[in-house]
Amino acid sequence: MELGIIWTVVLCILGARVALKWLLKNTNWWLHERRLGEKQYSLPPGDLGWPFLGNMWSFLRAFKSNDPDSFISTFVSRFGRTGIYKAFMFGSPSVIVTAPETCRRVLTDDDCFKPGWPRSTMQLIGRKSFIGISYEEHKRLRRLTAAPVNGNEALSMYAKYIEENVVSSLNKWTTMGEIEFLTELRKLTFRIIMHIFLSSESEPVMEALEREYTTLNYGVRAMGINLPGFAYHKALKARKNLVATFQSIVDERRNLRKKSVVLPAKKDMMDALLDAEDENGRKLTDEEIIDVLLMYLNAGHESSGHTAMWAAIFLEQHPEYLQKAKAEQEEIVRKRPPTQIGLTLKEFREMEYLSKVIDETLRVITFSLTVFREAKMDVNIGGYTIPKGWKVLVWFRSVHLDPEIYVNPKEFNPSRWDGFTPKAGTFLPFGAGSRLCPGNDLAKLEISIFLHYFLLHYQMERLNPGCPVRYLPHTRPTDNCLARIKKCST
User: What residues bind heme, as annotated (predicted)?
Assistant: First the structure.
């Protein structure tokens, strides 16, 4: 009798566990798929994970391990190599696309897709920044800001300033002993982008802003939990401090204009934003100006600093590539007229091998692992339906590390670019389509100038060459590349 009761209790517990597990695994289906009716049967393969958390736990677990690509690998192993999977990411039912052609379609089809960044990211970067505004407003602001950042005249003007700062920084680092190479590079690239947008600010202001940006970025790829101790909570505080600083700068500029103070003939990006108006004479509000500034200053220094660091690391790890890149730079200097001082844009465009080094670094590292879009209508891709309102994550890492596109994809090999022109959608370091990163040429110029002087006159001694790598918010050594920078003996 007692044994029967015990078995009944055990069976009830097991049944309850099975029922609870079924309920938990199917809650997101009930909330997001069932309402689609017949369309749910044409969704891509995949699963929406646990209630509310979705697949975020497995995503964070993978990216905090030494194998971040295991996240997508689990989809491939369970559902096949379809290149498109349903999931629940960053609080929304989503579709992850990993095939080049599908990625290109999502990025370039503005009729079917719009920006779809998570609400938490929008709160950090700004709803009036490029990632939040409409297609028409984006086109207007891009026209306004692209030429002063990427135009030939602008690049010629900024090259000298970049060069001066690179030379002085490298020389300074040799006197500092142990440095966090990444931290110093980010300070350098931040100084450059600050000059472009705000002409100049004091060193303490720049350092304070750069620290706030570091905190902000840790929150961008974190779960949007606004509680003390969580990265997102700290990031919101950082944004508040950044907005306050930029507001004071905007106020000061506006006051100078009201007082008719004679301003420098050369305009920076802040002046351009203050002067901008549409066909109806409407000028940008303070919120619009600050959000554009906040986004540009962030994107304009993070990617350049990280890419320059990884290029230097990879070249130090591969002496044969380092010597080839250095020989190219030496040849550029050798052909230079004796009266010429410093680099020219013509010389920059002659750096064919160095350009391959940078492209290979961008591919291997994939600074931005994904971008977010949202379906404006039901969209059919490859026989699968992406429902209206669902997010679409363009997963750059899977494209750049696809062994069917790049042989031994995790191997750093600039020579793979010899005579190789990537097909559309297979190389997306700056995105694609109308929302292609507007600062891509400036970024490559910065990195090239830095590597030019670094290769010619300096070498790096890493203190922890076996240091583990962290993948969020961006790929970097956990010690920020602790190193000594030394002048070359020859």
Answer: 437
Residue-number span of the structural domain to which 408 is assigned:
39-487
Q: What's CA 223's distance to the chain center, in Å?
A: 17
Least confident span in 4-18, 430-444, 474-488 = 4-18
Residue 34 domain flag: no
Is the pLDDT assigned to residue 310 strictly greater than 90?
yes
Longest distance between any two alpha carbons in the chain, whole Å = 104
Looking at the domain assignment, is residue 83 inside a domain? Answer: yes
Give the Cα separation of 422 and 426 in Å (integer): 6
CB neighbour list of residue 135: distance below 8 Å, 6 or more residues apart: 110, 114, 434
The tokens describing 474, both together, are 């961006």
Query: What's the CA gap between 385 and 372, in Å, rounded?
Result: 17
Q: Which of 432, 386, 402, 429 is nearest to 85 (CA)?
A: 386
pLDDT digits (tens, 9 = 90+) for 152-177: 777 787 888 899 999 999 999 999 99
Collapse the DSSP code of 371 into the 3-class scheme (helix H, G, I; strand E, B; otherwise coil) and give the result: strand
Please, which residues bridge with residue 483 across strands?
Answer: 179, 462
pLDDT digits (tens, 9 = 90+) for 94-116: 999 999 999 999 999 999 999 99
Tokens of 293: 């500034």
pLDDT at 209: 83
Residues of each annotated binding site for heme? 437
Cα torsion through 270, 439, 239, 475, rounded to 10: -160
Binding annotation: 437
The answer to whether residue 332 is domain-embedded is yes
- State how far the Cα of 245 lies from the Cα of 343, in Å rounded to an integer: 35
DSSP code per residue over 254-299: HHHHHTTPPPPSS--HHHHHHH-B-TT-PBPPHHHHHHHHHHHHHH
Model pLDDT for residues 37-94, shown as the tens digit of each residue = 889 899 999 999 888 889 999 999 999 999 999 999 999 999 999 999 999 998 899 9
C-alpha distances (whole Å) from 433 to each of 13, 89, 108 are 55, 24, 4
Residue 253 counted as domain residue: yes
Distance, CA of 271 to CA of 285 (rounded, Å): 13
What's the CATH code of the domain at 388? 1.10.630.10
In the chain, how many domains are there?
1
d(CA 451, CA 445): 10
Give me the sheet containing 482-487, strands edge to edge: 179-180, 482-487, 458-462
